[in-house]
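[agent] plan:
  1. take the single chain provided in the ticket
  2. run structure prediction with default settings
  3. attach structure tokens to the ticket
  4. add a short note for the reviewer (M.T.)
[agent] executing step 1
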Amino acid sequence: MRNMLELKLRGKIAAVASALGILALCVGLSPLARGGAGAAAATETAIEVGLTKPADLKPRELRFKIQGMIRETLVHEGDHVKKGQLLMRQDDSEEQAELKILQQDATDIRIQGAKLQSKVKQAELKRIKKLFGEENSSEAELEKAQAEADLAELNIIQEEHDLLTKQAKVDKQQLIINKMSLVSPMDGLIQSVDAHVGEMVDPAKPPVITIVENNPVVVDVNLPSAMSQLLKPGQTLRVSYDQKEWKPAKVSYLAPMADSSAFMQAVHLTLDNPEGRPSGLKIFVELPPELADAQKADAEKTSRVTDK
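[agent] step 2 finished; step 3 output follows
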């Protein structure tokens, strides 16, 4: 009898334990089930790696347009420069002397002389006309006076044309001198100075100065075409050098032709860089969920086609 009671009690305990175990299992699994469903519904952003480049995509290489000897170098590597700032100058002493000669010759003195001569001839013509009217001068003398007056007028026109030619020569010489001074075409940072005082340079030689403009920088990233097709110029994405501090950057360029062999397309973002970080650095680009979904769907579609 006692044994039977023990067996019944053990059976009840086992049944209760089994019920509690099933309940605990259900309670324990339900958060996982809920979490799994949430994970399936939630979409994560994608991260792509890009590279920063100068504002005009590459360093600006500067050369003199004419051959000459360096007289003065006004900047050094690492200097910040402004657009229009004088960077380097060739020896232009001979060209300056020639300019002074041309400027001294390009005056209106000869025009003034021609005008005075014309006034004399006009007065003479007037006198002859009066004498001719009084029958005290011949027709030949009148014709001669008229011709000389006309010639004096033409001489004024010729002198005016000659002055224009001389002024053009002055301007041409000034252009030559201007080409012997190297000025910065933009705001930027001097990357290298490769010519020095006393050195002969010409356009065929390597650049004498290299400038980099790093504000803003261009973020160059290659994206799968399934992603890039969803982007629009002016759209804002987030970028980061360390995936901790994120900054906004705007889509500024979508390559007009994608790489059909790799199904990739070049995308450029413009990123303000007031702190002056160097270009050529790795940078992370955060892509919105819809782009990640598009890439995933495209990959699954490609996989199904490949399997077939």
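[agent] step 4 note for reviewer: The two ends are 72 Å apart (CA to CA).
[agent] ticket updated
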